[in-house]
Write a structure and sequence with these properties.
The protein is mainly alpha-helical. It is built from 10 helices and 7 strands. The chain is 43% helix and 10% strand. A 3-stranded antiparallel sheet has the order 3-5-4, covered by helices on one side. It has a two-stranded antiparallel sheet with strand order 1-2. The chain has a two-stranded antiparallel sheet with strand order 6-7. α1 crosses α5 and α1 crosses α7.
Length: 303
């Protein structure tokens, strides 16, 4: 069966907290499960359709010894790559995650009053709207191509949901990949129904949208960033794939990472600082001794 690839971020455990990947909000995962699945299925379907249309035709034998026929060179392997990329924010198929917002809405609130500028992917049903006082998390999507969202805990939640969909919720991804490759799914709705209702069990009858409980939920504002940051991430991904990882750490970050590693080995923070200072002084002394000479006794010239 097809295997889901994990996006390697190259983040060491000792990196400073502000440089680490944001954590997913676990409580929001079931609240957005159906929406994330439907969006992922739609993105996979659209990308597959685009690649199929662009793929050159090839002539092959219809059967051993049989007549030759023309068919698209678009392959099952191509679909597999798309599926692997849909949860990777650095890949084109995963670009959608930069334009998603999780919005909390009361059942009786007007849509225009709760929206933050995006289009609601799956609006509340009549039954959900009738639930007085209930609160839900809706997924809004924004127009692609503009400023991207700052990658925060809501982004990480969407990514986590996407990864769990393909890594855990679907027993065999080939059950989705093969029909898509064979062009047996005619519409985006067909793709959503197959992946999200039949295979993953995230949507459909018997899968109501979970309401937010009594505990307060932390919301994260949609902070826009220049799209050029996404281009930089993609460049880093390409370099990693070519065996040239790009590591951008300041001297301060490297020192903090070293201290955290030493503390992890059992030192106190004070002992770690003293160890680094002593090591730095020793290295400097060794360097000076190797690159100095006694002014009173200069080396004898060669005769």
């Amino acid at each position: 069966s097809a295997q889901m690839g994990m996006e390697g971020m190259g983040m060491g455990s000792g990196r400073r907290q502000r440089d680490k990947e944001p954590l997913a909000v676990k409580a929001d995962l079931p609240r957005v499960a159906c929406d994330v699945c439907q969006i992922a299925a739609t993105e996979i379907f659209r990308e597959a359709r685009k690649q199929r249309a662009a793929a050159p035709m090839e002539t092959v034998a219809s059967r051993p010894g049989g007549p030759k026929v023309e068919r698209s060179s678009f392959s099952e392997a191509d679909v597999n790559v798309i599926v692997q990329d849909v949860c990777n924010r650095r890949k084109e198929a995963g670009e959608w995650m930069w334009y998603v917002d999780l919005v909390e809405r009361r059942a009786d609130a007007a849509a225009k009053d709760a929206s933050r500028g995006g289009a609601v992917w799956r609006p509340l049903t009549k039954k959900e709207k009738a639930a007085a006082g209930a609160r839900y998390v809706l997924v809004e999507t924004r127009q692609r191509g503009g400023p991207i969202r700052k990658w925060d805990r809501e982004s990480a939640t969407v990514k986590r949901s996407c990864q769990e969909l393909l890594d855990d919720d679907v027993d065999d991804l080939d059950d989705f990949i093969v029909p898509l490759w064979k062009n047996e799914l005619d519409t985006e709705t067909d793709a959503q129904r197959l992946l999200c209702a039949e295979l993953a069990g995230r949507c459909g009858k018997g899968k109501p949208r979970p309401a937010i409980g009594g505990a307060p939920r932390e919301d994260f504002a949609y902070v826009e960033q220049e799209r050029s940051l996404l281009d930089t991430e993609r460049m880093m991904q390409n370099m990693e794939e070519q065996g040239m990882p790009m590591v951008m750490q300041s001297r301060e970050d490297m020192m903090d990472e070293l201290i955290e590693n030493l503390v992890g080995e059992g030192m106190t923070e004070e002992e770690a600082h003293e160890f680094i200072e002593a090591t730095t002084q020793s290295a400097g002394q060794d360097f000076r001794e190797e690159h100095s000479y006694d002014d009173a006794a200069p080396p004898e010239p060669d005769l």
